[in-house]
Design goal:
It comes from [Candida] anglica. The protein is of the alpha/beta class. It folds into two domains: about 1-50; about 115-450, Ribonuclease Z/Hydroxyacylglutathione hydrolase-like (Metallo-beta-lactamase, Chain A). Helices cover about 30% and strands about 20% of the residues. The chain has twelve helices and 17 strands. Strands 8-7-6-5-4-3-16-17 form an eight-stranded mixed beta sheet. A seven-stranded mixed beta sheet has the order 9-10-11-12-13-14-15, covered by helices on one side. A hairpin with a 2-residue loop joins β4 and β5 (about 185-190). The longest helix has about 40 residues, at about 5-45. The chain is globular and about 85 Å long.
Length: about 450
């Protein structure tokens, strides 16, 4: 005879298991139905256009699901087990692995490779100030002038001819998928996290090395104007809510569906939610939105194979995504955030928006593969994605910031660099150094300039 507690426990377990089975069956039904409709469409259509219907966002029982055959959902049991594994990996990574010597007889520690550099704050601020003045005067002639800040710029920039400000894209990796990108003077912060801890100073993974930029540095570099913050999803290593509260409503937040409520709890209301395949013109949000800005900017929200939620109870209540920024109809930046690999999905994105100038692709957190493969990509898979997108440049991010998976800390870096070397593309497929400012000429195919 079972006790009341045992009966209640079995009842909860049965109910949860039944719900998970229902979610999986309904998701598979959505995938099969879309596949059938897509096959029917392409067999009867003569158009060369791209059909997005197979990869539209989908919900089952009020939560978002992945409409991809390659995806395997995780249960609450797997979620909890992996969180325990992450805590163990973090302790090992920070206490032991970080201080290990490099292989091959190198006398340096791993942390020497992960050291932070100081970004070129003066160059970033200089460009920000010029654009802001242009917007104030509604006169954009200075965007076509090649100028340099009087001090603080690295020697390489003084030796190599700089492109016009209108044609500059600056990229500075802050850690994980967080970066400060400056496009023709427009400042964009991606997946913001600067904290040394994911959860709190006493609980959760600790950053391997401090962030190369503080919020004060970012405010200085942007002359107090971060124009846009792009958030791919709400995981703690992609959205630091305490930092979001400090940034507040001084910027325009662009997020996937369902995240507006979470930001509103932090007093943030200057938010635009986007669904997969939505495109948002950006000119109306640059400056006062009424200037005659001579270039056209827009952002498109594209699908990713991942999930959302910071706790078990809020799993997949908001969407996850990647972003493509376009300038004058040309795709200049792909911010992936987090994603697993789906060949057909990325071929579709590439057909619609390729070629791309620069792709920020995650290369870490792929072990153990039985758990990570549906949700994250390896360095080799990141290169496959870049090929599908026809991306000229790749920066491998989402590694070396927190130790939250089983692969060695530096393995993603070495694997991607080896692939680039084998393909004779080391100048175009790179692993960024924390804090270095990389300059891309939007009108040239030359490799990026980096401050050393």
């Amino acid at each position: 005879m079972l006790s009341i507690k045992a009966k209640v426990g079995l009842g909860i377990l049965f109910s949860y298991t039944s719900f998970e089975v229902y979610m999986q069956l309904r998701t598979q039904y959505v995938i099969r139905r879309r596949k059938q409709e897509y096959q029917k469409l392409i067999s009867t259509s003569n158009t060369d256009g791209v059909d997005f219907s197979k990869f539209k966002s989908a919900t089952v029982a009020g939560t978002f699901v992945n409409p991809f055959e390659e995806y395997r959902p995780q249960t609450a049991f797997e979620f909890l087990m992996v969180r325990i594994m992450e805590a163990i990996e973090s302790i090992y990574g920070n206490q032991f692995e970080l201080h290990n010597k490099l292989p091959g007889g190198d006398t340096r520690d791993i942390e020497d490779v992960l050291k932070s550099h100081k970004p070129d704050l003066e160059l970033l601020r200089h460009n920000s100030t010029i654009l802001q003045k242009c917007l104030e005067l509604n006169d954009f002639q200075n965007l076509d002038v090649t100028t340099s800040p009087s001090k603080g710029i690295s020697a390489i920039f003084s030796k190599v001819a700089q492109p016009k400000l209108r044609d500059q894209m600056l990229f500075t990796w802050i850690g994980q998928s967080c970066a400060l990108v400056q496009l023709s003077g427009i400042n964009i912060l991606t997946d913001p996290i600067l904290s040394n801890h994911l959860i709190s100073p006493s609980v959760g993974p600790k950053r391997l090395v401090p962030a190369p930029l503080s919020l004060e540095d970012i405010n200085y570099a942007t002359n107090n104007k971060v124009d846009f913050v792009l958030v791919s999803h709400d995981h703690p290593d992609h959205l630091e809510l305490d930092l979001a509260k400090k940034v507040g409503n001084k910027t325009m937040w662009i997020v996937p569906l369902g995240l507006k409520k979470k930001l509103a709890r932090k007093g943030i209301y200057n938010v635009i939610e986007m669904d997969w395949w939505d495109t948002l013109p950006l000119n109306g949000y640059i400056g006062n939105g009424t200037s005659n800005l001579t270039d056209k900017y827009e952002v498109t929200c594209v699908p990713a194979m991942h999930w959302s939620g910071r706790y078990v109870i809020d799993s997949n209540t908001s969407l996850w995504c990647s972003f493509i920024i376009r300038k004058n109809g040309e795709s200049v930046l792909y911010h992936a955030g987090d994603t697993g690999y789906s060949k057909e999905l990325f071929e579709t994105i590439g057909k619609a928006f390729g070629p791309l100038k620069l792709s920020l692709l995650p290369i870490g957190q792929y072990c153990p593969s039985w758990h990570q493969k549906p949700r994250h990509i390896s360095p080799a898979e990141s290169v496959h994605i870049a090929d599908h997108l026809n991306s000229k440049y790749v920066m491998g991010v989402h590694w070396g910031t927190f130790k939250i998976s089983s692969e060695p800390i530096l393995e993603p870096k070495y694997l991607l660099e080896n692939i680039a070397k084998e393909r004779n593309q080391s100048d175009f497929i790179q692993v960024p150094e924390l804090g270095l400012t990389y300059l891309y000429d939007l009108k040239s195919d030359a490799p990026p300039q980096a401050r050393k």
